Predict the structure.
Amino acid sequence: MSFQKFLNVITLSAKLLLCSCVSDIDRETLIYENDFETIDLTRIEGGNVTSYLGQNVLGTFNNGGFKLILENLGSHDYVQIQVLLYVHDSWDGNAESPDGKDYWGVMVDSSEVDVFKTSFSNSVCNSNYCLMQSYPERYPFLTFPKTGASVVDLPAFCKSDGTTSSYEIDLIFPHRKGKVEIVFWDELHQPNAINAKCDESWSINNIQVKLLST
Ligand SMILES: [Ca+2]
Ligand SMILES: [Ca+2]
């Protein structure tokens, strides 16, 4: 099997594993949607809107993040969180110190419910050099850079030799309370970079939150 074919098989397997399948969903209610084009940050704590590829995005972030707070929720069994994430510039995935590891995650209700913690890598990957990532699985799973990305090799946000990868993140957490706090966060390592945020960062193009009932 060629290296590329091997990569394709791994990517397909990862996509099948990613399916956050919850059976017997009776009702699905969209409770929040934001593409940041109107710069409405009413329910968001932390973060500013900036421009990338001619669109408004929330970010960029480096060792930071934001919190989305939604209240007066009707009865439900799960909360579904979907975002289009941009992973900008030279993320190093599960590389050892000093360049890694580069974590990204989503936390619901200060981790009372669940924490999704993964890592991303924008590294080149050949037989001599490859910095692995965990997505679409949770850390410390190991898979190839950019696995599960919807688009790769988009323009850099900042770094002259950087690129951006986009990911359609789709997570489902068990949740029944009348209020939810969703934290999007990162922990990035780039001690040798003169400008940390230019070396690696992330932003969100759009976000949707749904309540699911069984
Ligand atoms: Ca880096
Ligand atoms: Ca890094």
Notes: Residues 92, 99-100, 102, 188-190, 200 surround calcium ion (ligand 2) (CB under 6 Å). The chain has one domain: 3-213. Helices lie at 3-18, 196-199.
